[in-house]
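Hi R.,

Quick one: here's the DUF3077 domain-containing protein sequence you asked about.
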Amino acid sequence: MIKIVPDPPPAGALPHTADAPFGACAAGHPPLFSVRAGIEAHDALVHASMYLRCAHDTGMQACDKVDADARGMIWATLHSVEMAKGLVDALLDGIETQALERKAAR
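And here's the predicted structure, written out as tokens:
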């Protein structure tokens, strides 16, 4: 008999974050902050989506306060942020859809 629905991945098989320091000082000081190791990919992507939304909102406000030359650079950045958020949100939707499908298959 061929199994139509695959088994869900074993616990701990889904991707997790690795320790990743950031926030180095230009004066040569070591990084002050770090992404914690062991955070599930889904949770990390939720945070990334939130940070991208905040970056987009901040950039939109900055567009109102700068000259026309700088506004073009901010718009270019906003488009990149929007594309990154679209990718992150699509990954989140895919992860959540697959989780629901696995639950329904049980």
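Helices lie at 41-63, 68-105.

Cheers,
M.
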